[in-house]
Design brief:
The protein is α+β, with helices and mostly antiparallel strands. It folds into 2 domains: 151 residues, Inositol-pentakisphosphate 2-kinase, N-lobe (Phosphorylase Kinase, domain 1, 2-Layer Sandwich), CATH 3.30.200.110; 288 residues, no CATH class. It contains 15 helices and 12 strands. The strands form 2 sheets. Strands 1, 2, 3, 4, 5, 6 and 7 form a 7-stranded mixed beta sheet that branches. It has a 5-stranded antiparallel beta sheet with strand order 10-9-8-11-12, with helices on one face. The protein is globular, with a radius of gyration of 22 Å.
Length: 441
């Protein structure tokens, strides 16, 4: 009876969420000029509200996240509206993410209505503000009926910094092959991948940046100092194109070539030589004091105890057939919201009792969902506000906590093989040090 009541309660919660989605505010009441371009990633483009808050109170202090689409994607008829990813993103955030990250370290999310005509107007108005490296590849997806709004953690005054920390742990040796173990236990995934990408881009040095996530996650002030300095150096060397560090001043993203005068004024006339040091000194206490980095590292490692190699082997052991050469042939089912909720119940209650060194084939689905969720935390960003107007709000918040598609498992396994194979040819292997050898769930 108790189990049935829990199931019914979850169903009612889910239906209430759908009911709320039907009562959306509409962004179409605003004009494109009410929004200012902020930045974009591979999947979304972000705008900050700068319009009249008295006329549009729902959007005061908010940013708008619009989905993008490739320029080569099919053009759908005007009357066709695509299945809306936002209708799963918001319930996922509330059902899953808010159980794992403290609310004070998260932005508030909501869904608003949009339409094709309004999205077309937004795309045309803001296209000139986008980087030329992006405009030829993709643009705003106009075949959507809704968009996400979130707390504007950048703001329109002062200095804000976005860091994409990436993978914060070294894998367990238990499930690594004899070929990959010597490599994966010496060099972290991020540094291996960085080397591979730098070679593909034609860099003559081993990498354009020395940044290693192990330093940032270390909880050691000297190593965190090094990590911040390396992020700055990589930002300068890449002319601001490296996505691990973005700097915003007065609500606008700035680049190294125009940052000197702007940041000098912010740091009370600091000269160019010490600008880097002032930047590091400003970030260090915030990153040292926040529990966010420790939380992300713990979630990443406890949700990925097998590595993609171990997960692949567990699937193979669970199958009556030989493992296929390509996971794309598998018919993995995307988790439902109810399944995610049940998974978290297992994670909190049974995660410690599972023998990850000898995983049970019966728990394959658990490990698949765990790996997907770990990928979300490996790819998120943190926003640091150095000039908070409201001290009640945390200076550090976690953003870009999007649900990952289960179909990407095949891509991740292939990419893992390619990265390790490329790195085995390195003459001088980098040694990365994970300061946290064990973490409790």
């Amino acid at each position: 009876m108790k189990t049935q009541m829990v199931v019914e309660e979850k169903k009612l919660r889910f239906m209430f969420g759908i009911f709320c989605l039907a009562m959306l505010s509409s962004a179409t009441t605003t004009a494109p000029s009410d929004w200012s371009y902020v930045s974009e990633g591979g999947a979304t483009i972000v705008f900050s509200f700068i319009g009249d808050a008295a006329l549009h109170s729902d959007f005061r202090g908010q940013v708008l996240r619009l989905l993008k689409t490739s320029r080569t994607s099919p053009v759908f008829p005007a009357e066709q509206i695509l299945p809306d990813e936002n209708e799963s993103a918001l319930p996922f955030h509330r059902t899953v993410i808010e159980r794992l990250i403290p609310s004070e370290n998260l932005p508030r999310l909501a869904i608003v209505h949009v339409d094709r005509a309004w999205l077309h107007a937004m795309a045309n108005y803001h296209e000139s503000a986008r980087p030329s490296t992006r405009t030829g590849k993709d643009g705003i997806d106009v075949a959507r009926a809704s968009a996400l709004i979130a707390t504007d953690v950048i703001g329109h005054s002062g200095l804000s910094v976005e860091i994409k920390p990436k993978w914060g742990f070294m894998p367990s040796a238990a499930h690594l092959s004899p070929d990959t173990l010597p490599v994966k236990m010496q060099t972290c995934r991020f540094c291996m991948h960085k080397y591979t990408k730098s070679k593909q881009a034609g860099f003559t040095s081993s990498a354009p940046s020395l940044y290693c996530p192990m330093d940032l996650y270390s909880n050691d002030s000297h190593r965190i100092t090094k990590a911040i300095g390396d992020l700055w150096d990589g930002w300068v060397a890449s002319a601001g194109s490296a996505n691990n560090l973005k700097i915003f001043l007065h609500g606008k993203m700035i680049k190294p070539d125009d940052s000197t005068a702007l940041l000098q004024s912010h740091f009370a006339g600091a000269d160019t030589v010490c600008l880097r040091d002032r930047f590091v000194a400003a970030l260090l206490p915030l990153l040292s004091d926040t529990p966010v980095l420790r939380t992300l590292s713990t979630l990443q490692r406890t949700l990925d105890p097998l590595d993609i190699e171990g997960l692949s082997r567990l699937w193979s052991d669970s199958s009556s057939n030989d493992e296929p050469t390509d996971w794309n042939v598998l018919n993995f089912v995307q988790p439902s919201l109810e399944e995610w909720s049940f998974f978290l119940d297992q994670y909190f209650s049974l995660g410690k009792s599972f023998d990850h060194g000898n995983p049970d084939k019966a728990n394959l689905r658990y490990y698949i969902l765990a790996y997907l969720l770990s990928a979300t935390f490996k790819d998120c960003s943190i926003m640091i506000n150095l000039d908070r107007e409201n001290e009640q709000h945390s200076a550090v918040r976690v953003i870009d906590l999007d649900i990952k598609d289960i179909d990407r498992l095949a891509k991740w396994r292939t990419l893992d093989k390619e990265i390790v194979e490329a790195y085995t040819r390195v003459d001088h292997v980098k040694r990365c040090v994970d300061a946290h050898y064990t973490c409790d769930i």
